[in-house]
Structure formats: C-alpha cells, structure tokens
Amino acid sequence: MVVLVQGSLTLGDITLDGGSDKSRSANTDGGVFNVQSGGTLTVGTGSTIRNSTTTGNGGAIYNAGTINLPGGTISNNKANTGAGIYLTQGSRMNISGNPTFNGNTVSFSETTATNGNETVYSSGTAEQDIYIAGYSGTDAASLHVTGNLTGTAGSVWVWAAENPQIGRAHV
User: Fold this and answer.
1) 4-46, pLDDT tens digit by residue?
2) What is the chain's mean pLDDT, rounded?
3) Which of 95, 8, 123, 102 is CA-nearest to residue 59?
C-alpha cells in the first residue's frame, strides 16, 4: 500500500516494514509514501521506513512536495531510481538532524559498449539513498542539509539536466 501525502503527515516512533517480496511490491512511484505537490512529510527520530520495493521511483519515498528529516532511518529499500528517496521537479528536502540511510539499492543493466558485432553489457546493484532528478530553471528539486547523513554509505545521486542552472550553492 502506498500512502499519498497531500497535507501534512509527521511520523513519530513507528516502524513501517514495506515488504520486499513480489506479492507486496508496489508498481508505482513511492514504495511507502508518495508526497504530492503541496504535501509535507516529516520523518522524526525513532521512525523507520524499511524493506519496500517498487518498480517505479522512490523505494521508500517519492517526493513532489516537501520532506523534513530531523531523524529516522531509511533502510533496505529498492527501486528503479532513488531506492531511499526520490526528489522530483519542484520538490524540497530538509535534513536538519541525523537520519540514517543503509542498504537502499537500485539494480541496473545497460549496454556499455558496442564494437562491430560484439555488445558489452554491465549489470549489478548500487547504493542510492537520495536521488535528485535534474531539471533546469526554477523548478529544480532542492536538498538542504544542516544536519548529518549517517549510515554505511549515505549516498546522494544528482542527475543533471542538459543545461543545469545553479542559483545559489552553499557548501
């Protein structure tokens, strides 16, 4: 079941175990949550979102609105892209505490080279905790970090638009 967040939703001390077998796998964006434009999801300390699988984007959370992460754990989720959290056009994510990311993976299979009649394929898995979809202009997704990303490999992937524009960057 995917929860559509259209208003505000705050998670306290709760564990959401999404299931990773085929019979419980979601076929949409957001394995557990799909935050709509104008919606806000806050994942508080003591909250865990784990073991969710989707063939779409955002194994745990697909975000078109706002996500606040003052804490919580996002772990062992799988998706086509953005195994932990997928940020789409116009979305915002604020990390102000110490959320933990572990074991969020995407699988890939692609053609890496073609030489005459030979085609080389590569496949495997990669850890992908946060994925920021690239859009140019003012509708780009934004990630604001004033806290810490913890876990085994807290990874942030950014797909850049063809002509990305950066208004302000603070490192």
Assistant:
1) 899 999 999 999 998 544 555 556 889 999 999 999 999 999 9
2) 81
3) 102
E strand segments, the chain: 3-5, 8-11, 15-17, 33-35, 40-43, 48-50, 61-63, 66-69, 73-75, 78-79, 85-87, 92-95, 100-102, 105-115, 118-127, 130-132, 142-145, 150-151, 156-158
> What does the block give as tokens for 22?
């085929």
Note the pTM of the prediction, 2 decimals. Answer: 0.81
Report how far residue 114's alpha carbon sits from residue 66's, in angstroms, rounded to the nearest whole number.
42
Q: What letter does residue 53 receive in the DSSP assignment?
A: B
66: Cα separation from own chain's centroid: 13
Task: Give the chain's residues under pLDDT 50.
Answer: 20-21, 163-171
Number of H helices, E strands in the chain: 0, 19
Alpha helices (runs of H) in 106-170, residue ranges in sequence order? none
In this prediction, residue 66 carries a pLDDT of 97
Pairing, β 118-127 against β 105-115: antiparallel
Q: Which two tokens stand for residue 155?
A: 């990874």
